[in-house]
């Protein structure tokens, strides 16, 4: 039996709620837990975990049961006294979705959110079906697969007290199913190699030459637990993207990556947390010369449209998402896309494009190439005394720079690199060169003029000279 000390030690989160007294919103909280993975509500505990207690337990028990029965359909709860505290346990339910007072609620992170009926219908796969991340994982056992190092890392990240036994902590966090078997979410967070419990749950990073997948320069799989694969992917990204060093004093310098790393991390976390783990595909991070893509299998979760991205949040894997929030991998519930856009704006780079299909969600960050001193890209950034950039042009870009030493029409430049699609060539090849300040238009006020020509700038000639050095 879980003790009051154990529940207090874990603190408020996806499966635990503290309440000073029985208030009118208790039905909302019970409903939200019933629509998620279940949980416990402690009456007589303040938000900071201080035990104040409540009076008249027998009377309150009757009121709690009455509130739970007034839900539609009625929700079965267990109410017990733990000293001065009254514990309301909401077991995992099979009659989803539940409503209270004609409204629908769901647990997200450490709070309960109201949903519309249509959102609830779409949100769950079907009434009475438990979500995949809540289902037991038959390929993982605590006795055979959980070692001391893995548990120590998880305990530290999930803020579990040192003295608490794994079975107790995992049970309180709803990472154990009714039969004591670890859930899929638990296995993904505790596995040393996630491929042993789910063959396509890992993350793959790949670096390509130029702007297509024709030539791969580097590839690495990250098959650890979910939290570790996020960290591993970000370490890989940091090692591959361009970094500019800005001199801030006589001996100090500031490293400025070409893209905001916090925004990329948010995109990677979203891809891992919201992907469809029933898919046979895995999450990918692709790095091209002109862009970085984060690709997640499964399309959007039910209950959300492409137009609502950045406005509302409907997690596909609420148990996993709630644990990642507890482990501080998620900055704030429901703000992922909006935060990515805000971070890019603060970094003065374009907001990412989000492409949605039935099977995939792709977040694409445009890489803004950095040119030589005096170029437009350089002059817009803070600090003119910048050194140490790793940027080098691709073979196609070198050909275009050389061809454009004498002004050329777009058709001539397309022929140099054997491209036939004018729009893709303009967006994927010319635009990065223009952004870098390595080429320029002869008629900049009329970009689509039939007389338009492109020529290599002084910064572009410096780039070519540097290749010969």
Structural write-up:
By secondary structure, the protein is an alpha+beta fold. It folds into 4 domains: 124 residues, Schlafen, AAA domain (Methyltransferase, Cobalt-precorrin-4 Transmethylase, Domain 2, 2-Layer Sandwich); 51 residues, no CATH class; 164 residues, 2-Layer Sandwich (Heat Shock Protein 90); 91 residues, Winged helix-like DNA-binding domain superfamily/Winged helix DNA-binding domain (Arc Repressor Mutant, subunit A), CATH 1.10.10.10. Helices cover 34% and strands 19% of the residues. It contains 17 helices and 18 strands. The chain has a 6-stranded mixed sheet with strand order 9-8-12-13-15-14, covered by helices on one side. Strand 3 and strand 4 form a beta hairpin. Helix 9 packs antiparallel against helix 10 and helix 10 runs antiparallel to helix 12. The longest helix is centred in the middle third of the chain and has 15 residues. It starts with a helix and ends with a helix. 39% of the residues are buried. About 5% of the residues have low confidence.
């Amino acid at each position: 039996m879980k003790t009051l000390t154990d529940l207090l030690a874990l603190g408020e989160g996806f499966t635990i709620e503290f309440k000073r007294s029985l208030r009118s919103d208790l039905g909302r909280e019970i409903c939200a837990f019933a629509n998620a993975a279940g949980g416990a509500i402690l009456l007589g505990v303040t938000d900071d975990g201080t035990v104040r207690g409540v009076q008249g337990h027998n009377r309150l028990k009757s009121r709690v049961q009455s509130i739970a029965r007034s839900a539609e359909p009625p929700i079965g709860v267990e109410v017990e006294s733990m000293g001065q505290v009254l514990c309301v346990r909401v077991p995992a339910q099979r009659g989803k979705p539940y409503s209270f007072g004609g409204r629908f609620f769901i647990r997200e992170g450490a709070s309960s959110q109201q949903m519309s009926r249509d959102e609830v219908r779409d949100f769950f796969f079907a009434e009475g079906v438990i979500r995949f991340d809540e289902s037991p994982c038959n390929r993982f056992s605590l006795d055979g697969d959980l070692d001391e190092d893995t548990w120590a890392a998880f305990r530290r990240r999930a803020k579990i007290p040192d003295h608490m036994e794994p079975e107790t902590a995992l049970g309180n966090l709803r990472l154990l199913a009714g039969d004591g078997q670890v859930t899929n979410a638990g296995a993904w967070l505790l596995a040393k190699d996630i491929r042993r419990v789910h063959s396509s749950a890992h993350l793959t990073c790949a670096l390509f030459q130029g702007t297509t997948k024709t030539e791969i320069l580097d590839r690495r799989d990250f098959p650890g637990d979910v939290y570790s694969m996020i960290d591993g992917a970000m370490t890989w990204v940091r090692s591959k993207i361009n970094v500019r060093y800005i001199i801030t004093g006589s001996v100090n310098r500031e490293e400025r990556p070409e893209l905001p790393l916090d925004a990329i991390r948010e995109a990677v976390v979203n891809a891992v947390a919201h992907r469809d783990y029933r898919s046979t595909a895995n999450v990918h991070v692709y790095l091209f010369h002109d862009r970085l893509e984060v690709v997640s299998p499964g399309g959007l979760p039910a209950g959300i449209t492409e137009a609502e991205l950045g406005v509302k949040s409907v997690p596909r894997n609420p148990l996993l998402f709630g644990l990642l929030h507890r482990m501080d991998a998620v900055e704030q519930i429901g703000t992922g896309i909006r935060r990515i856009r805000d971070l890019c704006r603060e970094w003065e780079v374009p907001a990412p494009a989000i492409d949605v299909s039935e099977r995939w969600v792709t977040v694409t960050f445009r890489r803004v190439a950095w040119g030589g001193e005096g170029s437009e890209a350089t002059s817009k950034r803070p600090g003119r005394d910048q050194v140490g950039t790793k940027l080098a042009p691709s073979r196609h870009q070198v050909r275009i720079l050389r061809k454009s030493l004498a002004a050329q029409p777009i058709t001539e430049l397309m022929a140099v690199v054997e491209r036939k699609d004018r729009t893709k060539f303009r967006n994927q090849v010319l635009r990065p060169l223009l952004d870098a300040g390595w080429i320029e238009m002869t008629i900049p006020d009329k970009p689509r003029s039939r007389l338009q020509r492109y020529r290599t700038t002084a910064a572009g000639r410096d780039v070519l000279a540097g290749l010969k050095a």
